[in-house]
Structures are given as C-alpha cells and as structure tokens.
Amino acid sequence: MEQAPIEVRAARFSDRFVAYLLDGFPFGAGAIATVWVLLIRLEKAPTADLLATVAAAWITALFGYQLLGNMAGGTLGKRLLGLRVVLRDGGGTPASAGRSRARSSG
Question: What phi and psi, each to the nearest 5 degrees, are found at residue 98?
Fold first, then answer.
C-alpha cells in the first residue's frame, strides 16, 4: 500500500526565530563563559586576536550544530517547537548535506 503524501508547509517566522534562539543560547553562553574564564580567571590580556579566536570557535561550533541538526531533520530547538527540516517533495525526506550547509550558512 502506498503511503499518502505528507502536507509540507513553511513554519511561521516567529516559530523559526524562537527555535533559533533556543539553539543559539547555549553557544552564546559558552562564548561568554569562555571569555570570562580567559579574562578573569586566567588573567589573560583581552587582545583582539584572542577575542576573534573565541568568537570564531563558537561560531564554527554553532554552524556545525546547525548543519548536523538540519541533516537529522531538525535541531533541538526546532524539535521542541514541533518543526522539521524536510524537502518539499511531500514525503518528509530530510534535507541533504548540501541543502543543510546552505541553510546553516544563512
């Protein structure tokens, strides 16, 4: 027996935004904690290179999380809000690595 197509519709902007905030919060908190440890606890001088390295590391981690989450059908924030990342083919197919990379870059 053939399975009926799944209705695929775009999520509301507000739902996507809240999901993104939920996903991004741990990474923002981690970046702040890293700067606090480096500057306060380890008494490192706050150079532009040090802050740029910390920012690049946490942005890369967030990008990787979004990429893997999109390939899996949704990040934790999206799943908490009942959102899924799928193709518009009607079958609920998860996004490919290339499409997930494009979504994560955006």
Answer: -65, -45
Report whether pLDDT(86) > 80. Answer: no
Instruction: State the residue for tokens 């970046």.
Output: 31
- The whole-number pLDDT of residue 60 equals 94
Residue spans per domain, the chain: 13-105
Q: Are 27 and 62 in contact (CB under 8 A)?
A: yes
CB 104 within 8 A of CB 70: yes
% of the chain beyond a pLDDT of 90 = 31
Which tokens belong to 83?
């959102």
The dihedral sign for the CA sequence 11, 17, 21, 24: positive
Closest C-alpha among 105, 90, 94, 103 to residue 4: 90
pLDDT score at 27: 94
